[in-house]
Amino acid sequence: MKHILSTTAFLSLLSGIALADGHGNTVKIGVLMGFTGPVESLTPDMAASAELAFDEVNASGLFLGDRRIEPIRGDSTCADAAAATAAAERLVGDGVAAIVGAACSGATGAIVSNVAVPNGVLTLSPSATSPGLSDIDDRGLFFRTAPSDARQGEVLAELTKARGIDRVAVTYTNNDYGQGLVDSFTRAFKALGGTVTVSVAHEDGKADYTAEVSTLSASDASDLLVIGYVDQGGRQIIQTALDLGAFDRFILPDGMIGDALLAALGSQLEGSFGSVPGSDGDASAAFDALATEAGITGIGPFRGESYDAAALIALAMQSAGSSERDAIAGHVSRVANAPGTPIGVGELAKGLRILSEGGDIDYVGVSNVELDEGGNASGSYREIEIKGAAFETQRVW
After folding, report:
1. Which percentage of the chain shows pLDDT scores above 70?
2. Can you tell me whether residue 111 is helix, strand or coil?
3. Is residue 20 over pLDDT 50?
4. DSSP string spanning 76-105?
């Protein structure tokens, strides 16, 4: 009997060694963003912010017994569902355990349905905000650190009405993001007594937007809400409106907040305002300091949410004690929500240590992370205004 037990133990040991050799010392995690397409000026800083969290985890030496995270980038294009699906499939083929992304709502929906669910891969988006994603059949594999546009529409309506604006024309990019946000804003603005004089969809990538701007201008609204992307149709519509003298003040949601807008048109946008997910407190300042030290100096949205998404994935793996795909998703909310020791920006080593000792954590991060039962973040928004060709935070909603 002793001989049989010893043989069994020996075979078990060999199996464990083989498994360790198969996995190596590296855990691959995908970073799937729209590196080309309508938000290509925003995503490099988002990806770098996610990788900043992975660097912090690696430097701790505490992750899954001193394993290391290797980020692998993929380009979703943010505009082509087939390209997003193909990029995600390549990441899965490369052996990623989970994916940070995608950046845009349509791409995210495509990869969740076509890649994540069939392959059992967790996806955690820092910026996909379409309300429709709350109802996607994700089998518990999709989470997001950015709040839904169901809330952003309300915030935009409230801050617009608070400025005494009663009549607004709206143009929106003709996709999941645009349609979700225009519906939310219109409903909330009307409830506050405001009037949406006209709502015009636009397609990205066109050479000329004169027809759309002419229709918007003819509605006799005082201000134009531009639900679009800073690198494509949204910015071009603003340029056309300025050239034609149609509008001189614009309302800007998250997809329009970025360095590229200020570089192109900042001096002409004095007084334009809008909203972007995030806070303006100690956590935001701590993240900005870490990011600046790492060479991440942009002002675009979702940088903090990208750091938080990456941090949650690493902490969920540590909580599970495994990087196996089927073990991770069940631990995301456990590390994101109370009860547990609060873990802030720059404190990932502390979180990893507590989890390795069997304790509980409540990851707060940059964006005050709290996830509902569907994996959606509650989040907060900064009201911003363009002053002196720069974005200035007015208050937090």
Report:
1. 94
2. helix
3. no
4. -TTT-HHHHHHHHHHHHHTT-SEEEE-SSH
Mean pLDDT over each residue of the chain, to the nearest integer: 92
pLDDT tens, residue by residue, 79-112: 899 999 999 999 999 999 999 999 999 999 999 9
pLDDT at 281: 81
Nearest Cα to Cα of residue 151 among 180, 172, 194: 180
Give the type of residue at 231.
D
- For residues 303-312, average pLDDT: 97
Strand order, beta sheet including 250-252: 195-202, 167-173, 223-227, 250-252, 273-277, 381-387, 390-396
Helices (H), ranges, the chain: 2-23, 43-60, 81-93, 105-111, 117-119, 149-162, 176-191, 210-217, 233-244, 259-265, 282-293, 303-320, 325-328, 332-336, 348-356
Give the C-alpha distances (Å, rounded to integers) separating 224 from 154, 177, 196, 267: 16, 18, 10, 18
DSSP-assigned letter for residue 133: G
- Look at the block and give the residue holding tokens 């990788």: 51
Find the mean pLDDT for residues 272-280: 89
Rounded mean pLDDT of 195-207?
96
The one-character DSSP state at 114 is: I
Q: DSSP labels for 29-45?
A: EEEEE-SSSTTTTTHHH
Per-residue pLDDT at 10? 34
User: What number of other Cβ atoms are within 10 A of residue 85's Cβ?
Assistant: 17
Domains, the chain, ranges and CATH?
26-148+283-363 (3.40.50.2300), 150-276+382-396 (3.40.50.2300)
**Amino acid identity of 19?**
L
Contact 120, 326 (CB under 8 A): yes
